[in-house]
Design brief:
It is a single chain. The protein is mainly α. It has a domain of about 70 residues. The chain has four helices and no strands. The N terminus is likely disordered. Belongs to the ATPase B chain family. It is a single-pass membrane protein. This is ATP synthase subunit b.
Amino acid sequence: MFVSAAFAQSETHSQPAETQAVEHGAPGAAPETLHTETGVPHDAGHTGVFPPFDSTYYASQLLWLAITFGAFYLFLSRVALPRLGGVIEARRGQIEQDLDHAGRMKEDADNAIAAYEQELAEARMKAGRIAGKARDEAKTKADAERATVEASLEAKLAEAEARIAAIKEKAMQDVGSIAEGTAADIVEHLVGGIADKASVSAAVKAAS
């Protein structure tokens, strides 16, 4: 505001007398064509000093600079920086919570894996014991069945051997009778008489 007022005042003072006379309608002054929207002649803009570079306004400029810097500093210290710090603290707390949660989850996963491995080892040991017990039971059962079969076979073999011995004995008895009859027939045929059965039986027994 101070700069705008000073700039307008400077522009007014820097105008030539003829231009001021024309603007105020002084008598006897020739009208001059204006080329700007503010009503200042075209040649009047080239006179005077640009207000920001004028040493007369340095004090006001420094005052407004100090006020603006102070307001900006207060805004940063009271509003922006606390909010930014709060956001950073909130994110830091969230990150720490996430890390703690991840650590707990990892610990739970490790415990679950250890329990699973222990249960798996126990299951393998139990399966090994069950397999060994089943193998032993199957072996014992097979041995018992084999012993039963062998005993049955031995009994049948003994029975068969007894039958064979009886058949052999009977056959030998039949062979002796046949041999005695055959020998008696041969003697009767050769001698032409009836052979003595006792002599023929003794002779067959002696030969056998």
